[in-house]
Design goal:
Elements: H1 7-24, E1 27-30, E2 33-36, E3 40-42, H2 43-46, E4 47-50, H3 54-61, E5 64-67, E6 74-78, H4 79-88, E7 97-99, E8 103-108, E9 110-112, H5 115-132, E10 136-142, E11 149-151, E12 155-160, E13 171-179, E14 182-202, E15 217-223, E16 241-243, E17 258-260, E18 269-276, E19 279-287, E20 296-301, E21 307-314, E22 317-321
């Protein structure tokens, strides 16, 4: 004899079986908002996943969902896209219990860059050349955003001047933020440098067309107003030159304030300085051509009568190497 089970009992047993089956399915509970920590986005980044089988749980966690947004941007991911991604990974309809909002908002985890890191990078780019040439230099302007955010990771800040010619007027500097060896963000900003350096200045008031002599200039520290290469910081460039404009006492001598003179003319007596290793001799000679300091001309050794080429080093002085 078979016992008769009431219909209500059969319904209860069926319902209990369905509930047990549903409880055994993997559960994917997706959050309404997610903070991504890497470039690629996976289901495990935005959902709690429960599954009795570890392999199934791993498969669900690693289902790709495309890209993560950059810092400061949002990505919206719909329920349909998440469902399609799960199906594309080989999970049949009804084999996974899904709790998914209509849309998921995703943003990128960020870190804030300290302004001191940017300033140090700009200082390296802008001040190193000046400091190497003996100038005392500092940044007096650096316009930065109130907040600089980049994705998380090891930070390196690089700066480039972008061909700026005059650092003592406002100029554009380009800044790059590298995260874990890859560029993450670029920005351009305005900077300005102030520098002081020892340069040659007029020792007294000097008139236009003055032929400069040793007593006409001295070394003094001055604030730089233009590119450092425009200033003169040693006497050698002032040999055999005349001013192209007047200079006041203490005014810096710049390269546009003088021009070379003819310091030797044909027939002028010259001293010939000859060098051969450590040996150095001086003999009397005669110029056979005109020239400026640095020019190569023909001269005659008055003692031997020989003609040869020599370089003009100053007024009435030429040099030759044997």
């Amino acid at each position: 004899m078979f016992a008769l089970i009431p219909l209500a009992g059969i319904v209860l047993l069926a319902g209990s079986a369905r509930a047990t089956a549903q409880q055994s399915l993997p559960l994917v509970r997706v959050h309404a908002e997610c903070v991504a920590q890497r470039d690629g986005l996976f289901l495990g980044d935005l959902a709690e996943i429960a599954a009795t089988n570890s392999e199934t749980r791993e498969r669900l966690q690693t289902i790709p969902l495309g890209y993560a947004p950059e810092v400061g941007a949002l990505r919206e991911l719909s329920r349909e896209k998440i469902t399609l991604a799960i199906a594309a990974a080989g999970f049949a309809h009804g084999s996974v219990t899904l709790e998914v909002p209509s849309f998921v908002l995703i943003r990128r985890e960020a870190q804030t860059i300290e302004p001191s890191l940017v300033r140090a990078a700009v200082e390296r780019a802008a001040l190193a050349g000046l400091q190497a040439r003996g100038a005392t230099a500092r940044l007096v302007r650096l316009d930065l955003p109130l907040l600089i955010e980049v994705r998380t990771g090891a930070v390196e800040v690089r700066a480039a001047l972008g061909g700026a010619k005059n650092l003592f007027a406002p100029f554009i500097v380009f800044v790059e933020f590298w995260i874990d060896g890859r560029i993450a963000r670029r920005l351009s900003t305005t900077a300005q440098v102030e520098a002081f350096a020892p340069v040659l200045v007029a020792a007294h008031d000097l008139a236009d067309k003055t032929r400069l002599r040793a007593g006409d200039f001295v070394i003094a520290v001055r604030k730089l107003e233009r590119d450092f290469s425009s200033y003169v910081n040693e006497p050698a460039p002032l040999r055999g030159v005349s001013l192209t404009r007047s200079l006041s006492d203490g005014e810096a001598i710049t390269t546009d304030a003088f021009a070379p003179n003819i310091v030797v003319k044909p027939g002028d007596p010259v001293r010939i300085s000859g060098e051969s290793g450590s040996l150095k001799i001086l003999v009397a000679g005669e110029a056979r051509a005109a020239g400026h300091v640095g020019d190569r001309i023909q001269v005659k050794n008055l003692q031997s009568g020989l003609l040869f080429q020599a370089v003009i080093v100053d007024e009435g002085i030429v040099s030759v190497r044997f």
